């Protein structure tokens, strides 16, 4: 008798557990769905993902196909969350938080400063000249595509410019005569290469913290004068790190500030003068250090 009572209680408990689990599973698979009414009077049974300044984003079922799209807010007459008791859209198909800017075009420009120490072989009279030549300006552009909200890749171009000149310099020649003239340097350093980027967006998806790492071609050109015109050209592999912050001005435009560190070293160069070109290989202690820091400000286009 006791065994029969225990078995009955066990069966009842199992039934209760089964009912509870069934209700829970049904509750998980069924969720309230939203309503959008357009200006034309069409009613959409859908799941609203996000409402931004100009658009409303939603997912709905159309002819057995789950679609995610958007409508301009000026075409929406009315919307209400949880209007329908049952959702036609599986929760896994609602992209919601996946709505974020995929494309970013950044135009940068600002101050640039080369970090290499001045060689001890430079005469004291020209130390200030070389110090002034280290500082210049730079400009460039980054094009990015983010395949997730946080990760992306792109292409970077940047040009550094610095120049200086001094007149009435002189040199005593081997025959004892003195030669007078001018000295000038007009330096361009170009970088182009792919980059891998990470990004942290704020809740509104307008402001973002950006970190990029690039590797690519670093080209050096100096159109110089030392009594006579000559050109120095070379290239090497360059590395670049960018850290920046974009401040959203509107849905698709932002103002950005960025700090960059460029790294590269020249071990040889081509010296051209008087119609001839000579390749110069540098000793290890005479390598040309192209490392610099850039401080930029610019406009960003996001989409």
Could you list some keywords that capture this structure?
Porin, 303 residues, 2 helices, 8-stranded antiparallel β-barrel, SH3 type barrels, 5-stranded antiparallel β-sheet
The radius of gyration is 33 Å
CATH architecture assignment name of the largest domain: Beta Barrel
Q: Detail the poorly predicted runs.
A: 5-10, 17-30
CATH topology of the largest domain: Porin
Oligomeric form of this entry? single chain
CATH top level label of the largest domain: Mainly Beta
- Structural class computed from helices and strand pairing: mainly beta
Secondary structure: helix percent: 10-25%
Quickly count the helices: 2
Mean pLDDT: 86
Number of domain modules:
2
The description of the largest β-sheet is:
8 strands, antiparallel, barrel
Task: Tell me about this structure.
- The chain has 303 residues and is mainly beta.
- It has two domains: 2-98, SH3 type barrels; 103-302, Porin.
- It has helices at 2-29, 127-134, and strands at residues 33-38, 43-51, 55-62, 65-72, 76-84, 103-114, 135-146, 151-172, 178-201, 208-226, 228-248, 253-263, 265-266, 268-273, 276-281, 288-289, 292-302.
- The strands form three sheets. An eight-stranded antiparallel β-barrel has the order 6-7-8-9-10-11-12-17. The protein has a five-stranded antiparallel β-sheet with strand order 4-3-2-1-5, with no helix packed on it. A two-stranded antiparallel sheet has the order 13-16.
- A hairpin with a 4-residue loop joins β11 and β12 (253-263).
- The longest helix has 28 residues, at 2-29.
- It is rod-shaped and about 100 Å long.
- The chain starts with a helix and ends with a strand.
- The relative contact order is 0.13.
- The model is unreliable at 5-10 and 17-30 (pLDDT under 50).
